[in-house]
Amino acid sequence: MAKLTIIGAPTEDGTYRRGCIMGPAALRTAGLIDAFAALGHEIVADTDLSPDAIAIDDGPLRPAHDVGAVAGWVRAIRRAVAEALSRGETPVLLGGDHSIAAGSLAGVMDVAPHTHVVWLDAHPDFHTLATTESGNLHGIPVAIAAGLEGSRLVYGAPHVPLVPRHVTMIGIRSVDRAERALLQEHGVHVHDMRDVDEHGVGWLIRGAIARAQEAGAPIHVSLDVDFLDPDLAPAVGTTVPGGATVREAHLAMELLHESGRVRSLDLVELNPFLDERGRTATLMVDLAASLFGRTIMDRPTPSW
After folding, report:
1. What helix, strand, coil percent values describe the chain, rounded to 5?
2. Active-site annotation holds for 138
């Protein structure tokens, strides 16, 4: 069983749409902590962070906005995730918009720089501060964690860059032109929904696990609500039609659990203001439970 540290990051500074500041509370209300406890995991801590106070002038960075606010969250999250991992705990980051993953990814790299990442999202989030068209910083975390332009400003200090070739993105279906060029240049494994349709999510997840296993690496999972089809999970401000089904998402979680390599998790972009009687929050809790061992039938898996 795992020792879990729950880290809430109630922020919406990285997006234009209000509401995901309530995400961590909604996940807890939907039974996340109880689900983990029922699986036998120990909840070492369950707290919400406060951001560092960082002042950065957005003027020269436009259209990027709220850069200082996002940097404050990223730096606080980086410390919290690294500290949990250093104690042998499994950090579970509750968002909040996806900009916070720049903090979790940096924290993971601080402790285990060989970690592989499974990025489940409709978007690759591989913009830099220079390429973002919307200015919303939930579109930059992977590129920033990889050390691309703007990373020093966001982190305020040197960091161990994420290796782009160690990142597998699944469910992608909205990519800007600048992002596409950067993804190809840096060798990220990108699987759009056509890949899911042609090969199946199981084959793609097994490929990511195989690459991590060959490297002897742990896995960080970043799960965005918009990985899922919006007809199933409406509580997200960046809906893109044609996402993963419930069964596909559960299969991904179950296979990742069975790998025995998952050491950290992001649950992000839940906007309860857009939900329907909590069904998206409940689905996200169910998926997290699958990632941490809930099954219909018992299957032998590696011990935690």
Report:
1. 45, 15, 40
2. yes
